[in-house]
Amino acid sequence: MASLPAPTADGLPLVVLSPGFTKPRSTLTALAEDLASHGYVVAAVDHTYENVATTFPDGRVTTCLARETPARDEAFWEKVVQGRAADASFVLDELSGPKWTMIDTSRIGMAGHSIGGASAIPALLTDSRVLAGIDIDGTTHAPIPRDGLSRPFLFLGRPGPSVSWQRDWPLLTGWKRWLVVAGAVHPSFTDVGLLAEQFGLGKAELPASRATEITRGCVRGFFDMHLRGRPETDLAAEFPEVNIQQ
Predict the structure, then answer these.
(1) Of 5, 86, 89, 235, which is most buried by a Cβ count within 10 Å?
(2) Rounded to whole angstroms, how far apart are CA atoms 157 and 181?
């Protein structure tokens, strides 16, 4: 899904969005629309073999083969995030051509939910074009080298312990924040939470509309700072539900 804002003289920053495991890109629509409405080009990715179906221009259709994998051990998840990082690089290659003159390819970020957020780390490690990343409530799997990851990174999640984030935190050597949203649950950060609440299935203390507002504000504030050079937003003051963990 690519939103195409009106071009400017210098081009617009690009944000790549990656959804949760087996989830379609449409689960990040509320976030994508907000970024696009604030002057970002947004490319949300349906990852081949991980969503219900992907139709290619030549008519081929691939299904969700990832669901058929019997053993989902650490090696499996590391393969998933590395594959998604490769998908993100492919998208950047495609959007760097002459057709996409509205994009400023010197200002690119990546964010995702769950395994999509975890995929931002290998994307930053393997593609120098990605300047900043956000992991929204995703357990991380890709190992960070001993010399660390120096580009800006944001962890945004629900309350509770996160062993993988705690492990990776010292290896994030650039600008970094770890934000926790009180009352949120895993789907709260996506359109799944909005839909679940409408069907009476929501279990979060935090209303879905408020969770969406907070997610939008945190993600946009991060990218405004690191892709546009704007001052840092005091998110804890703007959203009392947001706590700075680290």
Answers:
(1) 235
(2) 6
